[in-house]
């Protein structure tokens, strides 16, 4: 197995905190490699370094065995590295095609048809189910995420980074995304999946690098490692999956919402006539 990505002894310090302290990550060609860690463990920082958004204070990066210096996301793109961020970066009143070619084609208006065709082909090849002519604001969050995936594929990315991709998805969309990741590696791509959800790692990942408070804890083979083992590596102590909780002693209502609406410029924003009451102790 050859390593498509090697990040060796990476250190990154922010004022008052060492976000990455001597972390090494090695990703094999064609695998789904999970990065597991609690909130603030340093996962996004590590990936931002790989994607050229931050620079490491120490350490080096090898892509396909060759040392590289990644100064910007453009450099990362040129090396075949793409990233879907925790927050999507789409222009809402543009079409799928416009969003995908934005910043890529110098000649933005010239070859829309050709681009549309290529996008359609990519969508079919990887099971993304996206119509290139749809407007972003008319499609679901799950579809918007698949547009971000198409954006990477359109730029011929070979190494795809997903930062907490399922946080915004419904259970069905999560299933679909897992299948898309399998399709991607089946076509020879490599996937880095940042998450703190063990069931997702168990469902799709081949190997998992675990980090805690900026430090590398270990790398495990997912099939042969139990979820509770990975969980305890993540938090640094044994983890009990069973919640020992007595029936609630419910008290008086302490929060009451009546017919809540959220408007912006007289336009309803999703919430309409929403009521909720929360009791103490529940
Ligand atoms: N630009 C920044 N400036 C200062 N501190 C930062 C910056 N980015 C991250 N940090 C800090 O570095 C640490 C690691 O953050 P990071 O975002 O990499 O964690 P994470 O593992 O991605 O967490 P999460 O699961 O919450 O996304 C945190 O303590 C965070 O507050
Ligand atoms: Mg993060």
Q: Describe it for me?
A:
- The structure is a single chain.
- The longest helix has 16 residues.
- The chain starts with a strand and ends with a strand.
- 28% of the residues lie in helices and 30% in strands.
- It is α/β, with parallel strands linked by helices.
- The mean pLDDT is 92.
- The strands form four sheets. It has a six-stranded mixed beta sheet with strand order 6-7-8-3-9-10, with helices on both faces. A four-stranded antiparallel beta sheet has the order 2-1-4-5, with helices on one face. A two-stranded antiparallel sheet has the order 11-14.
- It folds into two domains: 233 residues, Rossmann fold (3-Layer(aba) Sandwich), CATH 3.40.50; 36 residues, no CATH class.
- It contains eight helices and 14 strands.
- The structure holds adenosine-5'-triphosphate and magnesium ion (MG).
